[in-house]
Amino acid sequence: MGQGKTRGARTPLEKLALAVLCVAGLSLIGFVASVPLDVKHQFLLSAAVFVAALLLRRSSSPVVVLALMGLSLTMSTRYIWWRLTETMGVGTPLDMVLGSGLLVAELYAFVVLVFGFFQVAWPLNRKPVPLPADQALWPTVDVFIPTYNEPLSVVRTTVLAASVLDWPEDRLNVYVLDDGRRDELREFCEQAGVHYLTRTNNSHAKAGNINAALKKTSGEFVAIFDCDHMPSRSFLQVAMGWLVRDPNLAVVQTPHYFFSPDPFERNLDTFGKVPNEGHLFYGLLQDGNDTWNATFFCGSCAVIRRGPLEEVGGVAVETVTEDAHTAIRLHQRGYDSAYLPIPQAAGLATESLSAHVGQRIRWARGMAQIFRVDNPMFTRGLKLAQRLCYTNAMIHFFYGLPRIIFLTAPLAFLLFGAHVIHASALMILAYALPHILQSGLTNLRVQGRYRSLLWNEVYETTLAWYILLPTTMAVINPKLGKFNVTAKGGLVRKSYFDAQIAKPYLFLLVLNLTGMAAGVLRLVFGGDSGEVQTLWLNLGWTAYNMMILGATIATCSEQRQIRRAHRVPLRMPAVLHMPDGTAVPCHTVDFSTGGMALRPDSPYPMAPGTEVQVELGHRGRSYRLPAVVRQDRDEQGVSIEFQELDLEQERWLVASTFARADLWMSQWGRHDRDTFLGSLGGVLRASVRGFMALGRHVADSSRSGFRGPRAGDNA
Fold this sequence. Notes:
Elements lengths: L2 H5 L4 H23 L4 H18 L5 H25 L6 H27 L21 E7 L4 H12 L8 E7 L4 H10 L2 E3 L7 H10 L6 E4 L5 E2 L3 H11 L3 E5 L3 E2 L4 H5 L9 H15 L10 E4 H6 L10 H11 L3 E4 L5 E3 L5 H21 L10 H12 L4 H9 L2 H6 L8 H23 L5 H24 L19 E2 L1 H27 L6 H24 L1 E2 L9 E2 L3 E5 L5 E9 L3 E6 L10 E8 L2 E12 L5 E5 L4 H10 L6 H5 L8 H28 L12
Helix pairs in contact: 2-4, 3-4, 3-18, 4-5, 4-18, 5-15, 5-16, 6-7, 6-22, 14-15, 14-19, 16-19, 19-21, 19-24, 20-21, 21-24
């Protein structure tokens, strides 16, 4: 049965009714958006729409979400129509050039808003379906773990987790695809009982590595995990049900979940408090894509049917985002995709901001390459909804220039007296404020559990400068650039201020400070008595930009990270066996590959250095692991460090902790819904920390004559 049928096919009458409803709704929005109003009536309309939205947002109905989107689009379309028809006065050549640049940035933001609303209008929220009761009907699966130069300590945990997947042994093969050709990894694979594959070259990087492995394997399905993504034991049982049921389904994608903080979360102290950018994509956007049969393959934590993958020539090698490009080609051939919003694997985030930026540059370049060589709006074989979803994903990465324009636009008036919008300050507020407030209010309702609006501003500002040139060059010449492996498992041994990566933000900050000073001087000396409102409007805009830039600078203040083995919260029963034979019932607090924190059920003093055995139970079995007490914190519990484990003990540790079916699900989506005041307060505090970190860096640099090396020491 095809995926479309499993979703519930609409009758021709229902399709006609839906089409009529869409046309009527768009016509109504177009009519309301184009009606000219004076300032007073524009404010009254905006107030009425905003109050209606405030009342509507309390409901959890999906229909209400569509209504909020309609109200937001109405006010945003009014703003864009007004900008196009009433604010593009000729003025001076400088007015025209700078004003046109701002308008282009606003049009870009409007298109992204429209496409984004379409993408998440009605998330599918797909549930797993059961596999056949007879395991003889379960297909064969090859698990691919591509690796290049990652530390063996990172790879081995993923390999051991894959080796305990709940799937019939005679129908499962685990392959480590080593483009680094390392003898120590080959030896480990032999000991772990998994297959080791390599090749004589590194052509086409990860995509080429996978394609080479496809020629040497034969499983009906291929599950792919990055070498730092540890699958849960239940991964295949959760993901394979839809693939067995629907022969036209080519790929099932699950979320990428990271149990270590990324540089934004660590440097801004938001880990576990504010959703990172991955939560928006995997928590909402992919779920929305699934409604339109436009789920992307994301390179890891996914299962692909071998036949369709080979039919499209394997994993795409023409761009550095081979995963999304492969998904497009599968959809072009008429195959379906599916998304299960259930985390069944977890991995390591990048350690440093520079590495994180480098990874996002590759993503941005790759999506721009696809936009250039296989543009979803014009390529054959895609349905309209798929074209819109793919296009939105690609144009998202072109936000570099618009973001920089928004950060500098008010300086045109403050520094040069240029009018980028030919209208009074009151008229600008009357049209722009409802556009901003309505879209913000709607996105709070739609995305509040998955993204913080203001923190997202900080995130995009941090990356804007660095993705601007790669995306532009990829459109001009898509063959430029190469695949770079993202380093994982490294350390940040000392806290330091990364002045190198902060340079563009510091430049933008100086520009905004200069504009602010110029505007204040004009206010004080009254040189613009006829444009005081315009001055205040641009000063307010500049103050907001400085707040965002301050928080962005805070991301450059790298915080110390010296744990190779990150701790993961987990509460489960355990028993500590003391040297005298005493058994101490405990429960775990957290764990890592190197140790555990436990809390005895009853107080029991333990001296540091005491050799113990920790007994862990899972699925009716238990195993004892050798350990030594490192710290006894009385009522707070005890910390232990594992002694050297043999391979089977290490496999059991992974099976009973990292590979638990419920572990990552319990950590997923636990953030509070975003509020404007909450995120505003958080970004303000981060901005203050950013300015303080910058001040300390300037003071330290001046003492060393601006010649000393940076304080960081990465490994």
